[in-house]
Every structure is written in structure tokens, then in C-alpha cells.
Specification:
Elements: E1 2-7, H1 21-30, H2 37-56, H3 61-71, H4 97-109, E2 117-118, E3 122-123, H5 129-138, H6 143-163, H7 177-189, H8 193-205, H9 221-241, H10 257-260, E4 268-273, H11 298-311, E5 317-324, H12 326-331, H13 348-351, H14 355-365, H15 376-379, H16 382-388, E6 391-395, H17 397-404, E7 415-421, E8 426-431, H18 446-457, H19 463-474, H20 493-496
Parallel strand pairs: 5-6
Antiparallel strand pairs: 1-4, 2-3, 5-7, 7-8
Helix pairs in contact: 1-7, 1-8, 2-4, 2-18, 2-19, 3-4, 4-5, 4-9, 5-6, 5-7, 5-9, 6-7, 7-8, 7-9, 8-9, 11-14, 14-16
């Protein structure tokens, strides 16, 4: 990997185009290096993972609304373009690709249940799949071309997350997604560096927004934000292909992202990118979720399940303090200062960003479920509320250090739980990484991804459709041009009829 120093430059400062970060990313996107077998296998795993969580969320209101928006944008085959598929609908029903990216992106993100990478910033790099796949279907590309595009999307997303912190300045993490998806689409389509450069700039410019979408009263926009970024990436590539340019230099300009939205003129960022001829392997450093909750609560859920028998009678708990990293403390813990994180009336989106709630329910139930654990009646149980409000978090510098460690054996996203009983006795345990993490007790491999798919699609997809999708997904690298419509799934009208009625909009 080559480390690139990225900083803001004054308007009069000499700063050649060749040194722009957007140029460096475009060069990675156009590098013809082959995708390794190991990376290909993991990309297939994530295609399966995305479909699983999308199916489980299919009839939730935000997903239903996004699907309605997309189906209002039908696309009939013309000029060698065929439109893209929407999860749940027949593969023959095509919509414009940017709208498919939105609808499928919302479905994938709605339950906060797919893959993650945590570095200087947060991310869900699987958010790259819906826009890149939509364009691949629309343009009649092959499975091998799709795999190449996704390898780029994951690489750029993870590398930006390693090097540039957004949340410190209250900018939402999807600002890294627009550029990564644009770069991945550029690789998929075999575009030149200049076109990809312009698309990256446009995608970043249109997807910078504040983190209020993940603060306080968290709404359905949490699912829409990355889907919107994917949609903007598709549109940005389309404009760039037509010869339209972007603000430049987008990151480093005197009035650019770093100067005014991030650290300003006195801060340097170190962004690692593969050198020429170096394989794109970043997906292998990401990890998926066993539980439907924010990633930094994965290990605490497993820790709570492990501790519950030692604690015994939960009514005897006086307090629980989770010693954890700065990120966990301020994003999903009491360091956020959000009273909503203790509100029994809070939205599902807020509850899945409340580690006190999550730890309480995991202690009581000994399990976690993507629907039952968030049900309103579950959140409002008096014994749950009482336990929930005894739980707090505190930053521990050692956990913060391990969060930012570059050594995979040191990097950790867990916590140490100190449970104090009414008798004064304390029970202490800790867990560094989730059981499903590559270094955890039960690392996810193809078998676990398939099991997760089977579990989440039960009652949504007929078994024959489950089997068909899994067979197609595992053949994804070998699918011929025009066969990528197999990487969707169809449900019956009976399933879709269970979706809530949504008001009509403009479309």
C-alpha cells in the first residue's frame, strides 16, 4: 500500500491534478490487476449477506416507500440498456438504475445488519453493492466485471475510512460512499481515469451531510442516507460520461471538503491506496454482523449472553458500567448525551444505537432477534426499562487505543462489563471482538452466510427461490453478460400485501 498525504491547499498554491486524491483513486479504479480468489469468495459472501438482510426488511415502511418511488421510474430496454431489478419484484420488471440503487440500498441498510469496517471513520462497505450491481444489470455486464467493480468499491471505501475521520467534524460517513461507489462503477464499465476523476468529485460534492441522521431522534433517513449516496454515485458517473465536470480539487481545494467541512488547513490525512499492480484486498478486513444492531454493540451482545448465568437474578443488579472505546461511548453509549437512548418510546433506529438498551435485552433474553428485540412491547417492559437505566458507558483509553490499532490481533470493538450487585459484589468480564468476527469464537464463513440467509428469508422467500438465489450468487463470478438479473429475488404478492400502506408522493 502507498500512503498518500492529503491536505487543503490555498487557491494560489501550485497543486497539479496528478496529485489530487481523486486522481489517485481513479488510478486505482483503472488498474487492470486481477481480483484474487480469496477476495472473489468474500464478495460472493457479501452479495448473499446483502440479499438476506434486504429480504428480512422487505415489507418495512421505509423499504416499501423506496420501492414505490423506484417502480414509478420504469425502464424499457433501449440502446443496449435494460434497466435494473428491485428486490422482491420479478426480474422482468426493470427500473432506471439510479432508482434501483436507492430502493435496494434502503432495503439493505434498513435493519443495520450487513457488513462493517471501522477505522478513523465508520462504514458499511456493503452499501457499495446496490449501486454497482444496478449499473451492471442495466448495462448488461458480466459477473466477472461486477466482481471487479465491487472489489474497487470495497477498496476505496475501506481506504478512505482508514485515513479520513468524518464524524469528528459531524459529517456523516456516507461522504466516503459516494466516491467509492463512483470508482467501483468506473471499474465495472471500464471508464478512463479522467471520467472517473470527475465522477468521484461530483459524488463527494453531492453526498456530504451532517451526522444528525445518526443523532438524537434517529429516523428512517438512517437507511436512506447511504442509498441516496449510491443513487448520487450512479448519476455522477452518468454526467461525467457525458463530459460534465466536478468541483476540483474536491478534497484539497481552498474551499473544498477538508478546508471547510473537516480539519481545515492545518490538518493532514494519510490515506492508504494500493500501488500499481497491487491487488484490491480491503474487503478481507471488513466483517459482517451476527446480530441486527450497530456494529460496536456486537461484542457487548455476545458478552451479555456469556455473563447472564454468572449474574443470576438480574433484579439484584445495582449498576452496570461498560468500559469501552471513545467511539462506542459517544456514538451508542451515554457519552452521546442523547436522552432518547433511554426512551422506551424511541424508534427502532434509535434503539439499535443504544448499547444500554441492547445490553439489557441481551442479558434478559440471552439472544438477539432483528424484530422481537426491538418490538415496542419489548422496549416498554417495566423490568427492561428498570435494568436499562442502570447501565452506563465510560471511555477507557486502552479500549480506544485498541479500536484504532493497525495490528489485526490488537484491534478490538468490545468492552469490559463491571456488574455491581446490590450486595456490593462485582462481576467482571470482557470481550474484545464479536463471536462472528474473523478473530472471534465463531468466525463467519460461507456456511454461516448461507445460514443467515436461510434464517432471514424464512417466511419471505419460498424455499425454491432461496435455493435459486443461492445457486446464482455462488456462480456470480461466472455469470455471463446479461445474466446478472439472477442476483435478485422475487416474493409472492401475498408477502408484499403485508407491507404497510404508504401515502402517495409526487411520483
Amino acid at each position: 500500500m502507498k500512503i498518500h498525504t492529503v491536505r487543503a491547499h490555498g487557491a494560489a498554491e501550485e497543486f497539479p491534478r496528478s496529485e489530487h486524491l481523486a486522481t489517485k483513486i481513479a488510478e486505482v479504479a483503472t488498474d487492470p490487476i486481477e481480483v484474487t480468489a480469496e477476495v472473489t469468495e468474500m464478495i460472493v459472501n457479501r452479495i448473499i449477506d446483502n440479499a438476506a438482510v434486504a429480504a428480512a426488511a422487505l415489507i418495512r415502511r421505509p423499504v416499501t416507500s423506496a420501492r414505490a418511488q423506484a417502480t414509478a421510474q420504469p425502464y424499457g430496454p433501449r440502446r443496449g440498456r435494460s434497466g435494473a431489478t428491485v428486490f422482491g419484484l420479478p426480474a422482468s420488471r426493470r427500473v432506471s438504475p439510479e432508482w434501483a440503487a436507492l430502493a435496494n440500498g434502503v432495503a439493505v441498510r434498513e435493519l443495520d445488519f450487513h457488513d462493517t469496517f471501522l477505522g478513523a471513520e465508520y462504514s458499511h462497505p456493503g452499501d457499495n453493492v446496490p449501486p454497482i450491481l444496478a449499473v451492471a444489470q442495466h448495462a448488461g455486464r458480466s459477473g466477472a466485471e461486477l466482481i471487479r467493480g465491487l472489489a474497487t468499491g470495497y477498496e476505496i471505501q475501506v481506504d478512505l475510512v482508514r485515513g479520513i475521520c468524518l464524524h469528528e467534524h459531524k459529517i456523516d460517513h456516507v461522504a466516503h460512499l459516494g466516491p467509492s461507489a463512483a470508482a467501483g462503477i468506473g471499474t465495472l464499465l471500464g471508464l478512463n481515469s479522467e471520467t472517473i476523476y470527475q465522477a468521484i468529485g461530483q459524488a463527494l460534492h453531492t453526498t456530504t451531510a451532517t451526522r444528525q441522521s445518526r443523532k438524537g431522534e434517529i429516523s428512517s433517513w438512517k437507511a436512506y442516507a447511504p442509498a441516496f449516496a449510491g443513487k448520487m454515485a450512479v448519476e455522477s458517473v452518468d454526467r461525467a460520461m457525458r463530459g460534465e465536470g466536478a468541483p476540483a480539487p474536491i478534497w484539497e481545494g481552498a474551499d473544498g471538503v477538508i478546508a471547510w467541512l473537516l480539519g481545515g488547513h492545518d490538518v493532514e490525512y494519510l490515506v492508504p491506496l494500493p500501488g500499481p499492480g497491487e491487488a484490491k484486498r480491503a474487503i478481507l478486513d471488513s466483517y459482517t454482523k451476527e446480530h441486527s444492531a450497530e456494529y460496536q454493540s456486537q461484542a457487548p451482545i455476545d458478552l451479555a449472553r456469556r455473563m447472564r448465568d454468572r449474574i443470576g437474578d438480574l433484579d439484584q443488579i445495582a449498576s452496570i458500567v461498560l468500559h469501552t472505546s471513545h467511539h462506542t461511548h459517544v456514538v451508542i453509549g451515554t457519552g452521546s448525551g442523547d436522552p432518547q437512548k433511554f426512551d422506551p418510546q424511541a424508534s427502532r433506529e434509535t434503539l439499535d444505537h443504544s448499547v444500554p438498551y441492547i445490553f439489557a435485552v441481551a442479558l434478559q433474553d440471552g439472544t438477539w432477534h432483528h424484530e422481537r428485540s426491538y418490538a415496542p412491547q419489548r422496549a416498554r417492559r417495566p423490568d427492561t426499562v428498570a435494568l436499562w437505566r442502570k447501565i452506563s458507558t465510560i471511555e477507557d483509553p486502552e479500549w480506544t487505543r485498541r479500536y484504532h490499532a493497525t495490528d489485526p490481533n490488537e484491534k478490538a470493538f468490545g468492552a469490559r462489563a463491571v456488574v455491581t450487585l446490590k450486595s456490593g459484589e462485582t462481576i467482571v468480564d470482557e470481550l474484545a471482538v464479536a463471536d462472528a468476527h474473523p478473530f472471534g469464537a465463531r468466525p463467519f464463513a460461507r456456511e454461516q452466510y448461507i445460514a443467515k440467509f436461510r434464517t432471514l428469508t424464512e417466511g419471505v422467500l419460498a424455499q425454491s427461490e432461496q435455493n435459486r438465489f443461492l445457486e446464482a450468487a455462488q456462480r456470480a463470478p461466472k455469470l455471463a453478460a446479461g445474466e446478472l438479473d439472477q442476483l435478485t429475488f422475487t416474493v409472492t404478492d401475498t408477502v408484499l400485501d403485508r407491507a404497510p400502506a404508504t401515502p402517495e408522493g409526487i411520483f
